[in-house]
Amino acid sequence: MSWPQGYGRRVLAEVDSTNAEAARIAPTLAGPEWILGLRQTAGRGRRGRPWRDPVGNFAATLVLRPEGRPDHVALLSFVAALALHDACATVTGQPARFQLKWPNDVLLNGGKLAGILLESTGAAGGGVAHLAIGIGVNLRDVPQQNAVEPQALRPVSLLSETGVAITPEEFLHQLAHAFAQRKTQFDTYGFAPIREAWLARAARLGDRIIARTLRDTMEGTFETIDDRGNLVLLTAQGRAAIPAAEIFFEGGADASGD
Fold first, then answer.
1. CA distance 257 to 104
2. Same domain, 31 and 120
3. Suppose 234 and one of 40, 136, 214, 221 were both cysteines; which one would form an S-S bond, judging by CB atoms 3.0 to 4.6 Å apart?
4. Parallel, antiparallel, or unpaired: how do β-strands 8-12 and 33-37 relate?
């Protein structure tokens, strides 16, 4: 399988953060570029949380120069999540074990395997000049339990849960192809088929969950995601569309990382 056409690739033996590297090099890039860090010294997750990244795990960022309004560009998080699910299913041959947790985490046997962090690196004419899609996957190791936030979903690795051993470089090859295919689908047909495919893989769809925003905490039934990617929660007060929140399942919550 050859590398997907039109995408650049660089592999760094060590980097502070692949998203930070993306911000540094984005203005010099002529097209989309994958950055793989074989070792991250200062990885970070959502809301600036530290992200532990042992050697042998996967830490990469895709830098894009996207077209469209910021709200349309934000939907690429679902494209990336689907591509990540596709890659995991391909390398293991066990697609039923993987689910997607809104907005863009990947679960394996109910535990957290991977997270995605989107960061824009500038504005251009009301749009986004560059977008960094940071992806972290526990290919081999998981954080110690005392390093995981209280109430977080248990961390899992691909190796421990499936027995599949794969290098970061090999995983990048699968992910890059999966993303290129899903991105073409998104560009050609819009968000509708991405949304449908995401919902087919959604964790806890139809179940009661808790959504915690910076200001409020809401509990209700996870009904769907709408055409803007918002979580639609059916609460005692009615239907609520939530653009961003921490999602808590019975028995735990989680936070994304890059």
1. 10
2. yes
3. 221
4. parallel
- Over residues 137-165, the pLDDT tens digits come to 999 999 765 555 656 688 999 999 999 99
Residues 41, 16 contacting (CB under 8 angstroms): yes
Whole domain around residue 42: which residue ranges? 8-200
pLDDT at 118 over 70: yes
Tokens describing residue 144: 């110690």
List the alpha helices (DSSP H) in the chain. 18-25, 70-73, 76-92, 158-162, 168-189, 191-200
Rounded Cα gap, residues 114 and 117, in angstroms: 10
Domain match, 109 and 170 both: yes
Among residues 152, 154, 179, the alpha carbon closest in space to that of 61 is found at: 179
> Which of the two residues, 215 and 84, has the higher pLDDT score?
84
Q: Do the domain assignments include residue 68?
A: yes
Sheet holding 252-253, edge to edge: 238-242, 231-235, 217-225, 208-212, 246-249, 252-253
Q: What is the predicted pLDDT for the residue at 114?
A: 96
Classified as helix, coil or strand, 46 is helix
Q: Cβ(201)–Cβ(239) under 8 Å? A: no
In which residue are the tokens 């055409």 written?
227
The answer to whether position 53 is within a domain reads yes
- Dig out the tokens for 214 from the structure: 């910076």
- The reply to whether 99 and 217 lie within a common domain is no
Instruction: Answer yes or no: is 258 within a domain.
Output: no
Q: How far apart are CA 162 and CA 61, in angstroms?
A: 25
Band the pLDDT of 166: cuts 50, 70, 90. very high
